[in-house]
């Protein structure tokens, strides 16, 4: 396996781990620690917090999650397409456009049926 | 030093610990997040097996989509959290110790896991799944090429399948509202 190309991945993972550790570590070292009950409450646009954060959301939003999953799977198909795109050129572009166009039909259907309203 | 083996053991420990936390977390949201950790670990194993496309799909679909939809389902559910362990949540180390010592949280899963591992080792040692040599290089490029040329029709049919799933979800949602 071409291990050289995965060193980038390792560097990214290491960077992603170190960034929060270092920034939170510096904050812990430098920041004054003086908690009061007001400071420890959850910030909610500056007004007093109403109820628990674990409230039940309206089931209406589940459609958004399902639509997201569909387009996420679409991305999975477009990933190998992107890798070979330069070699195959216009032919591959037309194929991918047809692939996306079929899915846009579903998005238009969702729009027309008014399930995309953020109530 | 065999770095492949070291990486494998580190990944294995991460996966096992995360999987243990998935089944023992009192808060379902935490269990879902631990599941994401376990799935990322499995993606690392795929990467070690030179299946880099599978690793990316694992992160994209399982961590990105499936865990998201699980968290969505938890947020929408009336059973927001498991309430039975509420009073036990404090005192992390002692609770962990008691959990490991108890039969249903500690001994039973460990015994089941060991039994499974022994069975798999036995089957593997008997050459149940013979392993051929893997061609060098990354697999995404030949995969993309065959998807765009030889398997073009299945590629486009997959789009139709996704469309059906989307329309089905919308129809169910509309029916639920009325």
Tell me the layout of helices and strands.
The complex is a heterodimer of chains A (119) and B (178).
Chain A: H1 4-30, H2 37-40, H3 62-88, H4 90-112
Helix pairs in contact in A: 3-4
Chain B: H1 3-24, H2 28-48, H3 52-76, H4 92-101, H5 103-125, H6 140-148, H7 152-177
Helix pairs in contact in B: 1-2, 2-3
Largest sheet of chain B: none
Number of strands of chain A: 0
- Overall radius of gyration of chain A: 23 Å
Spell out the helices and strands of chain B N to C: HHHHHHH
- What's the rounded overall pLDDT mean of chain B? 82
CATH topology tier name of chain A: Methane Monooxygenase Hydroxylase, Chain G, domain 1
Domain module tally of chain A? 1
Global geometry of chain A: flat
Descriptive keywords:
heterodimer; A: 119 residues; mainly alpha; Methane Monooxygenase Hydroxylase, Chain G, domain 1; B: 178 residues; 0% strand; flat
Write a structural description.
Chain A has 119 residues and is an all-alpha fold. Chain A has one domain: Methane Monooxygenase Hydroxylase, Chain G, domain 1 (Up-down Bundle), CATH 1.20.58. Chain A is built from four helices and no strands. In chain A, helix 3 packs antiparallel against helix 4. The N and C termini of chain A lie far apart (50 Å). The mean pLDDT of chain A is 84. The model of chain B has no long low-confidence stretch (mean pLDDT 82). Chain B contains seven helices and no strands. In chain B, helix 2 runs antiparallel to helix 3. By secondary structure, chain B is an all-alpha fold. Chain B is flat. Classes of the chains: A mainly alpha (119), B mainly alpha (178). Chains A and B meet through helix 1, helix 3 and helix 4 of A and helix 3, helix 6 and helix 7 of B.
């Amino acid at each position: 396996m071409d291990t050289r190309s995965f060193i980038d991945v390792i560097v990214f993972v290491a960077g992603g781990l170190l960034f929060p550790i270092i920034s939170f570590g510096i904050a812990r070292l430098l920041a004054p620690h003086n908690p009061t009950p007001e400071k420890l409450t959850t910030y909610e646009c500056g007004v007093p917090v109403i109820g628990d954060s674990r409230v039940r959301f309206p089931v209406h939003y589940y459609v958004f999650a399902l639509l997201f999953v569909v387009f996420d799977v679409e991305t999975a198909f477009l990933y190998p397409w992107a890798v070979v795109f330069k070699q195959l050129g216009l032919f591959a572009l037309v194929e991918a456009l047809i692939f996306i166009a079929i899915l846009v039909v579903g998005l238009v259907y969702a729009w027309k049926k008014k399930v995309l309203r953020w109530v | 030093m065999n770095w492949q083996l070291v990486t494998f053991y580190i990944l294995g420990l991460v996966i096992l610990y995360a999987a243990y936390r998935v089944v023992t977390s009192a808060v379902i949201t935490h269990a879902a997040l631990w599941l994401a950790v376990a799935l990322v670990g499995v993606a690392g194993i795929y990467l070690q097996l030179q299946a880099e496309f599978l690793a990316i799909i694992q992160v994209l679909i399982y961590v990105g989509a499936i865990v998201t939809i699980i968290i969505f389902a938890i947020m929408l559910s009336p059973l927001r959290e498991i309430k039975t362990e509420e009073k036990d949540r404090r005192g992390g180390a002692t609770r962990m110790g008691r959990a490991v010592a108890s039969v249903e949280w500690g001994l039973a899963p460990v015994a089941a896991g060991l039994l499974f591992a022994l069975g798999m080792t036995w089957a593997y040692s008997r050459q149940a799944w013979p392993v051929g040599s893997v061609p060098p290089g990354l697999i995404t490029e030949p995969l993309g090429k065959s998807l765009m040329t030889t398997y073009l029709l299945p590629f486009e049919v997959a789009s139709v399948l996704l469309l059906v799933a989307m329309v089905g979800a919308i129809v169910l949602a509309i029916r639920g509202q009325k």
